[in-house]
Amino acid sequence: MALATAPTRTPALAAAKAVLAVAAVYNVLFGAWAVLFPASAFSLAGIDQPNYPELWQCIGMIVGVYGIGYAIAARDPIRHWPIVLVGLLGKILGPIGFLGALVSGRVPIEAGLIIVTNDLIWWPGFGLALWLAWKGRAGGSARPAPSAS
Prior knowledge:
67% of the residues lie in helices and 0% in strands. It is mainly α. It has one domain (11-138). It has 6 helices and no strands. Helix 1 runs antiparallel to helix 3 (53-75) and helix 1 crosses helix 6 (123-138).
């Protein structure tokens, strides 16, 4: 009995893989930048340097590690959808936290540029990957294919 499978070569899947691959490179590079040059992001945003740059470096390490996960997910977004889901959750929760800090006056709007590049621009591609994974699983990717008789 043959198993029905989700399409493995579609333009949408190729796009999702490409977005995840680019996100992987971006996150690794951003993470390295935050670890090696922790003061630079604050200088660019025009905000005070933190008292404990090690906390920003730790965030850089986490972002870089996410990049490794995105590289793994880029090879097979449908199979590795949990990595994509965790990444998208972070990319949704980060802007929510920023908005809270902005509304309370703790950060200037200029600091939001990092939210655009680290989070917002990735929503469509990550959402596409998750939609394809849901579609593949909901479409019965592990159900027996109809018989030809």
